[in-house]
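Case study 2.
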Amino acid sequence: MPKLNTLSEPDRDFFSLVAQAIFANPFSDNRDELNLKILKLSPLPTKTSINENVAAAVSDRLLKLSQTGPITNGNYNSTDE
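Prediction:
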């Protein structure tokens, strides 16, 4: 059986926030707070720039993870899926 990958604690925290943001109302203060936590930045001037920066942050993190192999549920421990 191949060895399963494990997310680092920072990656696990990051994707936990992303998962919460995915299911949050996009027009709520909660979603804004989650976006800012994902970006670790002070408030930005418009929602468009926040959303674009969040998308870029997720894309960059996924690109980093993909360097170790395919990003599929079967390649990670169940706690990281």
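The chain is about 55% helix and 0% strand.
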